[in-house]
């Protein structure tokens, strides 16, 4: 599969934990852990990640050779790859959108999750893509490829995702974050959209003003422009 070497498991506690273990042992760039099911998966902010059989769960070891200051950019690179994958598996009339920092949405419902973790000089990228199933006992809307009118096997989704990730990684490595940022913004809110950021215990309402050169969210508020580097985003003021 070119850049990537896949190790497949029927069930595993967490693909990210296994990728972390392999990274510590010196696993090379492009090592992929793929599981049919996870028993102890987690998402951003240590949230439990819904992981029944029938969806795609992979974690990837990357050793990009880039400085640590650029690691956060990989979140946006990955989101683009996942969005491309979703587009390829759904009817042509549907286009995946992105919500900062790395949520992938279809018609406003979350269809995938992305988690980045750092282990020494390696970055672990965990991806969960809802292919057959979407959780229902959660506070936000969720969907899956099949529920959105698509059809795909988990293996097909995995192979497309890895191909798109390789493409976006190459662009990022050769041309920097600028092209990634532009493509990400093309899939996100329109400039001026009313959004609310919950960051550091503070709720901040304002108008979306784009994303700066480091990937921080820019929000125009009554008290001036705010730069958000971590938090959750909700549509509406």
| Uncertain stretches of 5 or more adjacent residues | none
Q: Number of helix segments?
A: 4
Number of separate domains: 2
Mind telling me the CATH class of the largest domain? Alpha Beta
Order of helices and strands: EHEEHEEEEHHEEEEE
Second-tier CATH architecture of the largest domain: 2-Layer Sandwich
Supply Rg.
Answer: 17 Å
Going by helix content, strand content and strand pairing, the class is alpha+beta
What is the strand content? 25-35%
The main β sheet shows up as:
7 strands, mixed
Beginning-to-end CA distance, first to last residue: 45 Å
Description of the molecule:
With 237 residues, the chain is α+β, with helices and mostly antiparallel strands. The protein has helices spanning 15-24, 73-89, 154-175, 177-186; strands at residues 5-12, 31-38, 56-62, 97-99, 103-106, 109-119, 122-129, 194-199, 202-211, 217-221, 224-228, 232-235. It has two domains: 5-186, 2-Layer Sandwich (BirA Bifunctional Protein, domain 2), CATH 3.30.930.10; 194-235, SH3 type barrels (Roll), CATH 2.30.30. It contains four helices and twelve strands, in the order βαββαββββααβββββ. It has a seven-stranded mixed sheet, with helices on both faces. Strands 11-10-9-8-12 form a five-stranded antiparallel sheet, with no helix packed on it. The relative contact order is 0.14. The model has no long low-confidence stretch (mean pLDDT 92).
């Amino acid at each position: 599969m070119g850049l990537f070497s896949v190790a497949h498991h029927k069930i595993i506690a967490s693909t990210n934990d296994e990728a972390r273990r392999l990274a510590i042992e010196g696993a090379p760039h492009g090592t992929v852990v793929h599981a049919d099911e996870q028993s102890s998966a987690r998402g951003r902010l240590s949230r439990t990640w819904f992981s029944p059989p029938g969806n795609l769960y992979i974690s990837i070891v990357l050793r990009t050779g880039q400085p640590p200051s650029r690691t956060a950019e990989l979140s946006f690179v990955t989101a683009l790859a996942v969005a491309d994958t979703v587009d390829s598996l759904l009817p042509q009339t549907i286009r995946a959108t992105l919500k900062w920092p790395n949520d992938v949405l279809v018609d406003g419902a979350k269809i995938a999750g992305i988690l980045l973790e750092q282990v020494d000089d390696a970055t672990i990228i965990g991806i969960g893509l809802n292919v057959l199933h979407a959780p229902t006992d959660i506070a936000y809307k969720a969907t899956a490829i099949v529920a959105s009118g698509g059809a795909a096997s988990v293996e097909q989704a995995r192979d497309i995702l890895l191909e798109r990730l390789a493409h976006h990684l190459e662009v990022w490595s050769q041309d920097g974050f600028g092209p990634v940022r532009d493509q990400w913004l093309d899939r996100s809110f329109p400039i001026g959209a009313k959004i609310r950021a919950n960051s550091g215990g503070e709720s901040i309402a304002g108008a979306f003003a784009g994303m700066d050169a480091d990937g921080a969210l820019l929000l125009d508020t009554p008290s001036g422009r705010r730069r958000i580097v971590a938090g959750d985003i909700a549509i509406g003021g």
